[in-house]
Amino acid sequence: MPPKKRPPAKKIYVVEDDPIILDYLETVLKSLKYKVSSSQSGEGALEGIARNGSDLVLLDVMLPDVDGITLCRHLRQDRRTRDIPVIMLTCLTDSSTIRNAYAHGAVDFIPKPFSQAILKEKIKKALLTKHPVS
Question: For residue 12, what pLDDT is reported?
Answer without folding.
Answer: 98
